[in-house]
Amino acid sequence: MSDANTVNHQAEPSSPADQEDDSVKRGGTGKYSCLVIWLRRLLLTGFLGVVLFVSFVWYANYAATRAGKGVLFDDVNDVPVQRAGLVFGCSHKLGKRDNLYFKYRIQAAAELWHAGKVELLIVSGDNREKYYNEPVTMRKALMKAGVPFDNIVCDYAGLRTLDSVLRANKIFGLSELTLVSQKFQNERAAYIAKAYGIKVYGYNARDVEGYAARKIEDREVLARVKMWLDINITKKQPMHLGEKEPIL
After folding, report:
1. Ordered domains of the chain (ranges, CATH)
2. pTM of the full predicted structure?
């Protein structure tokens, strides 16, 4: 017999409309959570990608700097005696102005020869255009600085630093040489040379200051990345190789 004072309360079943609202809420929350997780993963992946890229750029630049340790000199008296020096080419003019990179490299190469540190100077540069010939222009400038014609060898296919270094070995038969350029390029050339078992020293030409120099420095960062990829990944070779012309 039921107690008259007891009231049985039974939960009323939810209506179809209420059930649909709950389902929508749960579904919306689930979609929002998935979106947040996806965005977090995307940001983390992007962050890790940036960190890896910056680390790689730093490492490639450090590798070149390390290659120059102990083999590059600012004082000509400290440079060991070698058979030949390799002078890297560039344009002698920037518009109507003299290119100081060219001027200082020629000065350094002439100093090296006059100090008796090399017997020969290989002037290596671009000669792809009819009225543009870096090796010939360098040879004329060196002769004007007192280096005899017979002590200057022209490499007309030194289109890049890598080409100049490897051609000195593969074409001119040199397993040892002295690099002549600004320090940033000498470091990169030293890395390339060491990777191919070429023994090198270097004489650093005077550096250039100002806006133009800062642009070169910015480009050098990526040039070293390409240097590392050329040596370790693509195994890049000179664009032009021909018959050997050993320097005796």
Report:
1. 68-232 (3.40.50)
2. 0.82
